[in-house]
Each structure stands twice: as C-alpha cells, then as structure tokens.
Write a structure and sequence with these properties.
It contains 3 helices and 3 strands. With 111 residues, the chain is of the alpha+beta class. The chain has one domain: K homology (KH) domain (GMP Synthetase, Chain A, domain 3, 2-Layer Sandwich), CATH 3.30.300. A 3-stranded mixed sheet has the order 1-2-3, with helices on one face.
Length: 111
C-alpha cells in the first residue's frame, strides 16, 4: 500500500516526465510519441518505476535501446525541474506499458 507521500511524489514525477517527453520527443526519440502511463515510487523514494506507452508501437528491444541512450538526459532534466520539491533525485527505471496491446488482443479474440 502506497503512502500519501509516495503518491504525491509519483504524481509530480509523472507530470514532469510527461512534459519532458512532450517537448523533447522530437530530439530524443526520433518523433515517437511517448506517454507516461503510471509511476510507482519505492517506500524510501529512491526508485521510480516509470511505465511508458510508445506510439507507433515498438518491440521491447527497441524500447530499451531508445530509453537507455537518453536515460541520463531525462534524469538530468527531471532533476532540474523538481530539485526544490525533493531532497534527492530518485533513480528511474523505465518499463514498457503493453496494456493497450493486451486490450486489443482481447477485443480481437472476443470478435
């Protein structure tokens, strides 16, 4: 169960990362549209698990190569934006959110 502080920090990180991806996606990700679907914080606020949705769809290998090259830039930009609200910058772990693909697959099976 997440504490109120974890939820608040997760919302802050999600909002700022969404803004970063919106403004920097042309430069960082070759025009792919990336959406932050969910952020989960560890109890000690040192790790943020960030779930991303990518359009057009990519494989997991492509996703990890896209994000791993830009991870330092993303973390730097995020820390620049939220350094007043947090004592220490959480480590970012990015995961591909494939819930939309799962929903589409179920819809096709039901038809």
């Amino acid at each position: 169960m997440e504490s109120t502080r974890q939820k608040r920090v997760a919302k802050l990180v999600q909002k700022e990362l969404g803004d970063i991806f919106l403004k920097e996606s042309k430069n960082m990700f070759a025009g792919k549209m990336i959406t932050v679907t969910q952020v989960r914080m560890s109890p000690d606020l040192t790790l943020a698990r960030v779930y991303l949705s990518v359009f057009p769809a990519v494989t997991k290998e492509e996703f990890h190569s896209l994000v791993d090259e830009q991870k330092k830039k993303i973390r730097f930009e995020l820390s620049r934006r939220i350094h007043n609200q947090l004592r220490s910058m959480p480590e970012l772990a990015f995961f591909l959110d494939d819930s939309l693909d799962y929903i589409e697959r179920i819809d096709k099976l039901l038809e």
